[in-house]
């Protein structure tokens, strides 16, 4: 479902955001600093459930892409869906770490892999799934 109630977002700023998600997942998986998953959960919650335009990191990255002259605007719906998934994954990573369970490694690896694909190629798997769902739903 396209979101016309929220201003379009910069997809290039979201590639920077994917870089941050990749870094957070790598820190979570390969260092003892598991608390960083809280950053993924909070950022994903703000961008996915509130609005990307209230998130400080999105504002920073959108400003950088604007200064570089590479803004590429798109509808916010698919990116907000991806952020909802990131919020849920980050929350699962954080809570399972608090409980002492290694289960948080599963969403950690998923974020690491899909964020790398997004930052390297610009292909957002969650955005694709969002669009595919609505195309299937219309059929």
Helix/strand layout:
Elements: E1 9-10, H1 11-30, H2 37-50, H3 56-68, E2 73-74, H4 76-98, H5 105-121, H6 125-138
Antiparallel strand pairs: 1-2
Helix pairs in contact: 1-3, 1-5, 2-4, 4-5, 4-6
Give the distance, in angstroms, between the N- and C-terminal Cα atoms.
14 Å
Low-confidence stretches: none
How many strands appear in the DSSP assignment? 2
Widest sheet, order of strands: 1-2
> How helix-rich are the residues, as a percent range?
over 70%
Q: What structural category characterises the helix and strand content?
A: mainly alpha
Number of helices: 6
Order of helices and strands: EHHHEHHH
Largest sheet: 2 strands, antiparallel
Radius of gyration: 15 Å
Query: Beta-sheet strand percentage?
Result: under 5%
Mean pLDDT across all residues, rounded? 93
Shape: globular
């Amino acid at each position: 479902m396209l979101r016309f109630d929220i201003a379009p977002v910069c997809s290039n700023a979201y590639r920077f955001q994917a870089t941050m998600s990749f870094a957070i997942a790598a820190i979570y998986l390969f260092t003892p600093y598991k608390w960083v998953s809280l950053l993924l959960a909070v950022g994903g919650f703000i961008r996915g459930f509130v609005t990307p335009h209230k998130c400080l990191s999105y504002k920073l990255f959108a400003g950088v892409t604007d200064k570089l002259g590479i803004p590429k605007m798109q509808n916010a719906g698919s990116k907000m869906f991806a952020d909802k998934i990131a919020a849920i994954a980050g929350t699962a990573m954080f809570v399972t770490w608090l409980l002492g369970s290694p289960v948080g490694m599963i969403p950690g690896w998923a974020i690491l892999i899909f964020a790398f694909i997004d930052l390297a190629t610009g292909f957002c798997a969650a955005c694709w799934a969002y669009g595919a769902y609505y195309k299937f739903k219309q059929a």
